[in-house]
Specification:
- Residues 465-664 form the Glycosyltransferase 2-like domain.
- It comes from Desulfofustis limnaeus.
- Keywords: Glycosyltransferase, Membrane, Transferase, Transmembrane, Transmembrane helix.
- The structure is a single chain.
- By secondary structure, the chain is an alpha/beta fold.
- It has a domain at 7-241: Glycosidases (TIM Barrel), CATH 3.20.20.80.
- The protein has 28 helices and 16 strands.
- It has a seven-stranded parallel sheet with strand order 1-2-3-4-5-6-7. The protein has a seven-stranded mixed sheet with strand order 10-9-8-11-14-13-15, with helices on both faces.
- Helix 10 (293-318) packs antiparallel against helix 11 and helix 23 (700-711) crosses helix 27.
- It is elongated.
Amino acid sequence: MRPWNDPAKQNLPSESEIDADLQMLAGKTNAIRVYSVAGSQQHVPFLARQYGLNVTLGAWIGPDLEANEEQIETVIRLAQQYYQNVIRVIIGNEALLREEVTIDQLQAYLDRVRDALDIPVSTAEPWHIWDTNRELADHVDFVATHILPYWEGIHVDRAVDYVIDRYEHLNRTFPGKDIVIAEVGWPSNGRIRQDAVASVANQAAFLRRFLRQAEELGYVYYIMEAFDQPWKRTLEGAVGAYWGVFDADRRAKFPFTSPIVNVPKWHLLAGISVLLALIVSGLLLIDSQRLSKRGRSFLAVIAFFAASCTVWIVYSYTRQYMTISSLIIGVLLIVGLSGVLLVLLAEAHEWAEALWGSVGRRSDQPAAAGDGPPPKVSIHVPAYNEPPEMLIETLNALANLDYPNYEVIVMDNNTRDPEVWQPVAAHCRTLGARFRFFHEDRLPGFKAGALNYALARTAPDVAVVAVIDSDYVVDRQWLRDLVPHFNRPRVAIVQAPQDYRDDRENLFKSMCFAEYRGFFCIGMVTRNERNAIIQHGTMTMVRRTVLEDIGGWAQWCITEDAELGLRIFERGYEAVYVPQSYGKGLMPDNFVDFKKQRYRWAYGAIQIMRHHARALFQPHCSRLSHGQRYHFLAGWLPWLADSVNLLFTLAALCWSVLMIHAPARFEPPLILISLIPISFFIFKLAKMFYLYQRRVDASLTKTLASAVAGLSLTHTIAKAVLFGFVTRNLPFFRTPKKAGCSTFRYALQAAREEGLMAIALLLAIHGVIVAQGTQSPDLKFWTVVLLIQAIPYLAAVAVSFIATGRSIPTRLLEGFSEPLSSDSQVLAKQAYAPLHRESTHKV
């Protein structure tokens, strides 16, 4: 068969193509075996005789009785006509193994053909079928057996001995019968079966050893097979196409005498890997003057590893015979691999900068103040349906600020119950003239609308606008310590981190608290070095003139804070991040609110990316620096990867279902492909555990809690990103405060999607193991991939149930220092002092 032939579709080679194949085999063998006499294959005996080749003629036997009759009649006719070179006849090929005929039917066919011919007649079956159906030997002239060690999972070094052992077993079992090895061989490509590895080198080694032994022992044998036959993939999986001594283009796969090189083009592949690694390293090391030698070496190693893996995966995939479906899969593989590598390199870059980068290249020292009073600050507190006692606590802390010149504007929008907002309004009146309260029943724009409303009512002499959430209790030194940063004219944003005061309330909140820590203790610190922080809408200060010049807060975006920060950067202004806690708020009380909060952040990120695409991707459209573009895009990459991973999970489930229902046709993906998600998962966990313990000062249990909490949001983020690309406007969701703890039933509902996905993945693992076993490494790796895909969904279910237990103790997560302490020492200095003892940074 040629690559375009398929006997199942009656698409057979032409007579001239058969003639060309026989001419190629002439002189290399003295006999050939064919399996059918349908169509053009009837010409094989005549054409083979011209080249001095003997023929073992085959009749294909299956469930179609009429086709069986036609095959048998044709075989008898051809064997009688070409008696000079048709030396044997085989009726049926593994028909009993496939259970397409009964043994009585097959024996009747054999008896009929033996009566009609004077040459030896048999049927071909694997050795174990002969061993379990010994009565079959009474109806044949010789035992035609298939002995294929690869299918038995035998290592290539033991394979020839295995063939001899099976041959001798049949010889003892059927004394007086000649044993003909009707199929023996080894594939050059395909999946691994237990200890049997399909490769060109192993194929060459097996055939060389077997031919030598067979000649010495006087065996009659047929090598399976002359040419690769891509059509067999539908019957035997990918490996079925690679049993030929010649490939499908009629090129010899290996010499029988000289040494074998398993990867003949390894020099070229190595060169491409090195070149690609140099390019990737060069991109990673842009603006790396402050990166230590260890950090640069780390990035170089990661770049070389990524380049080598990419080249090897592409090379291995292209060695397959391509079809339309495999080409489509190949394109998707390249796209997916490129995405994984982008995320991997971004994660590696953050790892290197966090451990071996120089923190403090951007001065965090406030500029000297000029003569005159400090600038006036207007603190805006947006509120919607907030518990009055909580908001009053926030206002009392603001009243206690150690700063001489500020005002507070409380903007309550759309709270319908007067008993909720009127106590706050009354309390503002008791706090004095600097506290002003506003309430509107129908104010559009959600939080951004409330902030723009407050901006329009800000005192004329205000220079700095500060924003806090309604649940934040601020430190007295907040304004006194941070406002001086605005003495530098180009500074438009001063940001302190979010922090929380209810982390010891229960185990769920402790886990959430641990999950929040990484961004503020690692991500924001490294981003600050390139003036690329994410502005978040609490504990932030903005220069008023800049805020008004750019049009205020964006009411079209549900993450108006991050969007504002990007717009300010596009104008060329600077931001300062001070990694010290100056205020503490409240976290979500249940898993649903935790998910909704992250859904809003991820959806808003896609809104921003779409709206600011020109500024982010076209350098001439804004004043963003390369570092700012990199950090904004690289910061969103993990969320984009989560959305792609959701699609991969759905595809993996579909593929697993096909593997379960049609195991012969659908095999697990190549090990190299399975290694991609496995390696990436391990890398991300290693990075997180290492950085959390080195830079966040967290215990092992706290780091694990953070990982579980973060993984529980994977499905939520993936949906938010996907919907962000296909929709434009999602209503703003406020994270409720003091909403109470959810019930057990509510926990089931909160994680129902994740729970169903986890069940589906676990069932897929079970089904694949039952249908295909775990004998081969690629099956084992595929089940590991499915298990890894299930971990985030299981984490979501676990966190949802943990959130129902208000009384679950938090002592399991104790044993770490406060991440954002309220004393005067800066966290960045605490974290980086071992590497940069010469640096002294004060706020």
